[in-house]
Amino acid sequence: MEYNKLTKFFYKYGPEPYHDEIYKRKNSYGSYLTPLFIRGFRKGQKLTDTFQLFYVHTHKLFSLNNKVLINSSKISALISKLPKFIIEPYFHKLIINEAQSNNEIEGVRSTKKELKEVLEDILRSDKTKKRFDGLMKTYLFIDDIEPFKEIADFRSLYDQLVSDEIDKENVPDGELFRKSYVEVNDGTQTTHIGIQSEIQIIEALNTLIHYLDDQNHSELYRYMVAHYYYEYIHPFYDGNGRTGRLLICSYISRYLERYSAISLSYAINKNKSKYYKALEEIPTPLNNGEMTFYLIDMLELLAAGQEGIIDDLEINLSKMERIEGFFKSTDWDQLEEEADMLEIMTNLSVFVNDEASLSVTDLMEISKKSRYKVNKIMEVLEEGGYVRLVRKRPKSYQVTDKLLNDLLIM
To answer: By its UniProt entry, which SUPFAM superfamilies does this protein fall under (predicted)?
Structure first.
């Protein structure tokens, strides 16, 4: 028999088979009951019914879990083929995309240019505080976020990530979290009502911390269930979506690697309707707390984000081979140092940004050459029409469009 959503099962087979099916699902060998309980929700109202969250380890869920693990291995293998000087700039490009997507999901206005400037300031250790400073620092150092052990850890993430973006009327008014009513509205109707009091919020977050550490549940399932439950709790008036996704990304980063972790919001942003529908179906009474189909949707989104990175890396590694072949040609026999420098610049243009500019200081650091040597090399390349000066202070260069076209389109 096809494994249907319980809602569909009810309408297809009727009440008695439906209740038998719930019993089977919750008591089968492949069932996993969580310690997390939610109130039912229907037509904009919380119900008195309480449901225990559970999922069934179906074949489809098992296959998706394996797919994500295989994708993670592919990403690690592809990253290992990159020159060292490309790895961090490439990661920076991805976190700009992810941060932009995380903002867009919540309707927060930002531009990639703005986020890039903030990231550059952080990398330069510029102490000037800018909008999205905390967001970019959190993504940049995602590997350094420790597993949550205390309730205050949730507030710390909120303070670092989104507190500067929250309107005054939505600032937490409890000891750590909100203390009053909050609801989520899609513009036409209420789609969720958060847990009512700060005491209840703290109790629920304590349960969540213990669940995140529960080794009886597979890691990816545990993290995705935790993401839903955090959104269900809704500990803050605003910023729950962004902090909730970042929270789970930090766990994914430790379990898989940082590239998979920072692909999730990007994938969600491309398919927001699937994400919100997956969240909203869970508390419907006929669903009875089942998380199986939500987990399938979330792992599909995670896998889609990974596959986007894999495709990008494979295409750009093919371009890198072409670039390498070009600079090994006899035309560059007498200009080995110039060829090496230009290969560095073209690879960065391909993997990071085709409009990327590099300062003389950047080129000195990457090439390990003196300022005098770099200036001489760049003079030759500029005269040959391979690069152009785009800034005088600091002196910065960009690969010409003609060279990129000659390399990659011919």
So the answer is: Fic-like
**If you write DSSP's letter for every residue of 71-121 in order, what string do you get?**
HHHHHHHHHTTS-HHHHHHHHHHHHHHHHHHHHHHTT----HHHHHHHHHH
Is residue 398 within 8 Å of 355, Cβ to Cβ?
A: yes
Please tell me the predicted confidence (pLDDT) of residue 410. Answer: 54
**Whole-angstrom Cα Rg for the chain:** 25
Q: What is the mean pLDDT of the chain?
A: 92
d(C-alpha 207, C-alpha 36), whole Å: 7
Cα(257)–Cα(255) distance, rounded to whole angstroms?
A: 6
* Neighbour-count burial of 218, counting CB atoms closer than 10 A to its CB (0-12 exposed, 13-18 middle, 19+ buried): middle
Cβ-count burial 274-307 (b if 16+ within 10 Å, e if not): bbbebbebbbbebbbbbbbbbbbbbbbbbbbbbb
Q: Which residues contact 100 (CB under 8 A, 6 or more apart)?
A: 110, 111, 112, 115
Domains with residue ranges and CATH for the chain: 6-311 (1.10.3290.10), 328-408 (1.10.10.10)
pLDDT of residue 328: 83
CA distance 212 to 222: 6
pLDDT of residue 86: 93
CB atoms within 10 A of CB 29: 6
pLDDT at 247 over 60: yes
Q: Check: CB of residue 211 under 8 Å from CB of residue 245.
A: no
pTM: 0.92
Count H helices and E strands in the chain, helices first.
18, 7
Chain centroid to Cα 347, Å, comes to 25
Whether residue 317 is predicted with pLDDT greater than 60 in this model: the reply is yes
**If we measure between CA atoms, which residue out of 217, 269, 287, 263 comes closest to residue 39?**
287
